[in-house]
Amino acid sequence: MNALVDTQSLKQLAGSYRSGRAADALLVPALLQTVRMRRRQLGQMMSAFDIDTAKRRLPPADYVVSRKIDGEYTCLIYDNGDVITMNPGGTVRTGADFHREAATLLESAGIKKAIVGGELYVRRDDGNRARVHDVTRVARAPKDEDEVASLCFGVFDIYDLDGTDPSMRHSEAIATIAKIFGAGDRVHPVEHAAGDHKFVLKQFRQWVLEDGAEGVVARSDSAGIYKIKPRHSLDLAVVGFSEGTEDRTGMLHSLLLAVVRPEDNTFHIVSRVGGGFSDEARVELLKSLSRQVVESDYAEVNSDRVAYQMLKPGVVAEISCLDIISRTSHGNTIDRMVIEWDAKKKRWEGVRRLPLASIISPQFVRLREDKQAIAEDIKMTQLSDIADIPETDRAAENLKLPKSTVLQRTVATKELRGATMVRKILLWKTNKEDVTGDYPAYVLHLTDYSPNRKRPLNHDVVVSSSLDQMEEVFETWRKKYFVRGWNEME
């Protein structure tokens, strides 16, 4: 019996290879929290640079620099001969060739228990660089045992080795990894070398610019951890803009950007970009875009809480970014709003939220007057070739959510020192709870407006799956907030 998982709760995919959910199969539930904590810790400790930033800001120090593998962050967990791998999303895998090889290597090293961090990737027959979408497809749905055999694991850290944690002593961890896994084939240390900060830049040029690797990771016991990658170039549709405030009034604050979904030509909002503009460009762009404003039933605000004004589809912007990620540190999808352009009504309409990605460190480059805001020019593959994004081939229109139904509504006003205060209580049924887990069944919302307060507008929200409970709270709020001078309107 496996000491880590109930293998019968995992789905057999090919040969002895099995995969499934940690919630169903994991015998030590705390292991999932450990994996998520390690992933979150790595993200907090690591600074991401492009090469120009690295030249300016990488601290002088001694580093261990490793070639970055384009795979899936995964932890390999070993307990007295039993091996599983698990990612922060809670997907457990076991029974592949690399699992068995890892068990052999750890047992030969006299290790009883271990947790190591690494990248799960696919070794390609054509010799080309591994891509994250390769491992996503093979690990989830391998065609046969030969594909399972292509799964490999590049080890870059050790979190637990028979009760010790060398992860914060990078040089020691790398040496230990080499000692345990150096003779491995499908399980092996990531390629690495040691040197000063100038050596890191040299390895970037060799491994990334010459060999085509995804990037490098530089670890230093004294200076920290740095991920250095080339910037990506993306062409995205401009669907909205916002104006600056205070001394930036009359200037562009940022653009709201979207990618076009290929199945139905809906627009999937992916990012905002507020950097890379000169002051002159901010003024001219605001004037130009202000003449193209259209209506929208979907609203989004910028970092200053100013609403974006929406634009008729047509403007395309090229941006650069440092990275594209499709999962949170807990392994959850990053869901973004899909909107649809109604040409007859000349307005945007919200469709629903679907998994997409976060764009790291976006910078405006230029407007692309040679491109159109259509799927052929604003390709989803710009993102999905870099990050594992589910459901990109599904039509968002087919997943359009039903409209909500207002169940109860009441408004009251009160005059105080010449000003009118307003309170509104609204109860509605979302009608979406059976379609997606993103919505509760019922929502109760209180709006409280008073121009005399420092913060004129306050909100309070309660959600529930019980209508009886919500109606009870509605009446409680009504008695609490509509007293002493408040006049309820018909």
What does the model show?
- Helix content is 22%, strand content 37%.
- By secondary structure, it is α+β, with helices and mostly antiparallel strands.
- The chain has 3 domains: 222 residues, DNA ligase/mRNA capping enzyme (D-amino Acid Aminotransferase, Chain A, domain 1, 2-Layer Sandwich), CATH 3.30.470; 168 residues, Nucleic acid-binding proteins (OB fold (Dihydrolipoamide Acetyltransferase, E2P)); 84 residues, no CATH class.
- The strands form 5 sheets. Strands 14, 15, 16, 17, 18, 19, 21, 22 and 24 form a 9-stranded mixed beta sheet that branches. An 8-stranded mixed beta sheet has the order 1-2-7-6-5-8-9-10. A 5-stranded mixed beta sheet has the order 3-13-12-4-11, sandwiched between helices.
- A hairpin with a 2-residue loop joins strand 25 and strand 26.
- The longest helix has 16 residues.
- The radius of gyration is 27 Å and the shape is globular.
- It starts with 10 loop residues before the first strand and ends with a strand.
- The mean pLDDT is 92.
CATH fold annotation of the largest domain: D-amino Acid Aminotransferase, Chain A, domain 1
Main sheet attributes: strand count, strand direction, barrel closure? 9 strands, mixed
CATH architecture of the largest domain: 2-Layer Sandwich
Average pLDDT, rounded to a whole number, is: 92
Number of helices: 11
Report the radius of gyration as a whole number of Å. Answer: 27 Å
Estimated structural class = alpha+beta
Quick one: overall form? globular
> Got a strand count?
29
Please report the distance between the alpha carbons of the first and last residues.
Answer: 69 Å
In CATH, what is the class of the largest domain? Alpha Beta
Instruction: Determine the strand fraction and express it as a percent band.
Output: 35-45%
The number of domains is 3
Query: What is the CATH superfamily classification of the largest domain?
Result: DNA ligase/mRNA capping enzyme
Helix fraction by DSSP (H/I, runs of at least 4): 10-25%
Spans of at least 5 consecutive residues whose pLDDT stays below 50 are: none
